Amino acid sequence: MKILSVASEVFPLIKTGGLADVAGALPIALAGRGMQMRTLMPGYPAVMQRLGTVEVVATFDDLLGEPARILATMHEGLDILVLDAPGFYDRPGGPYTDATGKDFVDNWRRFAALSFAGAEIARGVLPDWQPDLVHAHDWQAAMTPVYMRYTGLQHIPTIITVHNLAFQGQFGADIFPDLGLPPEAFTVEGLEYYGDVGFLKGGLRTAWSITTVSPTYAHEIATPEYGMGLEGLINARAPDLVGLVNGIDTAVWNPETDTHIARTYAAGSLKQRAVNRQALAERFSLVQDAGPIFCVVSRLTWQKGIDLIAETADWIVEQGGKLAVLGSGDQGLEGALLAAASRHRGRIGIVIGYNEPLSHLMQAGADAILIPSRFEPCGLTQLYGLRYGCVPIVARTGGLADTVIDANEAALSARVATGFQFTPINAEGLQHALRRAFKAYNEPKVWARIQNQGMKSDVSWENSAAHYADLYSSLLSRV
């Protein structure tokens, strides 16, 4: 089976969030099932600099206003197709924002071009390779099934995966004439969304199947609370919607072989984590005492519940805990956390930015990871925590609810607990979960059982890849 994946970021070439991890891990997980997945992604400067030998496999004289090429290459086991369009992607900043953090004003054109190229690959523009099925990810690739629907390729099965419904790619109606689509595409059955052009809305309307990254999130987005204005469409497409929990790359995230941590260890040698705990404390200038270290590895945003951590930080210190935070985002939240660190030197440490090796050390050295997200389609950091014996303390929402078994009395008695869940999602709810965590931490045998049970969890792509393979097969059977 030949599958084209279209994504705006792919680990290890470029990453801003969990989308990149999924786009990088799923092809490898599927390869063992007799499926060839090629991934189309933009040629950002950071990507172009990391490419090895490439082959030009297609050219466009005018791709929505810019010349472009498709380059084929292999990178760390991934079969990559890079859309080399300097007019769209060769610029300072990140994949979506400029050096000041503002969205590029032409993001609509940059990612419409990516989707158009994906549709052309589906049409057969590459020599000797045409996909049986196309899998698009999030709003940046959501126009792929739209172009396919309106340019005569509706017979090829398409899937769109929603990693976060909050980001929809909504633009003014004035861009529509430049998208290269027929007039009938700008209707409620296509791209029209409250008078605007909705990239994600169009993908949700035109794709054969819709997936989200956890079963609970699939249920949540059908409600007004989480549907972000698209709940009506989601409910209309309910028969075609399925939630599949993400996995993680268990070769990259493996405490037994991880080169980013101070001491490798396994579930049977948890005492070795003490070396990583010491290294983590030194990195964040935390005092070396017996109190638990809670870590946060996250975008510092309201959605991620970081305001709840800022509100609870003083209380954590009062209870004898310590806090290590890695992330960046909202300046107000960054400031609140930095102020807390200033008040509690040696008890709270902050690193603003993102550092992949440091995130590994934090999972290997911290006692618990805090994830108080107000909504979380899947989440990956709790899966890393489970893998590393860093006990997750999570809000009861989305994929967090699906992947962490709460340490209530029944779960503790049955020895199946892997972390702590809380609701309501507010400071009081978080404190209640932390009280339970402090109590368990002060009973070393109980805490070790929670750690060990978490490390036994299957957080690989094995099960999810099997579900995706079944979904692909079921769609192809309808052709």
TrEMBL record:
Q: Which reactions does this protein catalyse?
A: [(1->4)-alpha-D-glucosyl](n) + ADP-alpha-D-glucose = [(1->4)-alpha-D-glucosyl](n+1) + ADP + H(+)
Pathway of action: Glycan biosynthesis; glycogen biosynthesis
Query: What highest taxon heads this organism's lineage?
Result: Bacteria
Name assigned to this protein: Glycogen synthase
Q: Which residues form the Starch synthase catalytic domain?
A: 2-235
Q: Kindly give the NCBIfam families that the UniProt entry links to this protein.
A: glgA, PRK00654.1-2
Q: Which SUPFAM superfamilies match?
A: UDP-Glycosyltransferase/glycogen phosphorylase
Work out whether the entry's keyword set contains Transferase.
Answer: yes
InterPro entries (alphabetical):
Glyco_trans_1, GS/SS, Starch_synth_cat_dom
> Which keywords are on file for this protein?
Glycogen biosynthesis, Glycosyltransferase, Transferase
Write down any Gene Ontology CC term: cytosol
Q: Which organism is it from?
A: Shinella kummerowiae
